[in-house]
Amino acid sequence: RNSKEQRYGGKAVNGLANALPGDVICYDGHVAMYIGGGLIVHASTQRTGIKISNANYRPILAVRRVV
Q: What distance in Å separates the CA atoms of residue 3 and residue 24, rounded to the nearest whole number?
C-alpha cells in the first residue's frame, strides 16, 4: 500500500492520546510506526535514514491500528 491507502487500513484510533505501540501514524505523504511516549520510528530521508522523532513533528492525518 502507499501512504494514502494506509490511512484507511485497519481500525481508526481516536487520536494520538489513544495510540499504542505498533499503531500506524499517517501524515500527508508519509507514515510512521508509533513506539510509545509520543515518539515514532520512520524512514526519514535517504540521507538521514531511519530515525526516531516526536509524533507531532508534522500534522497527523490519522492513527490506525492493524490487527
A: 10
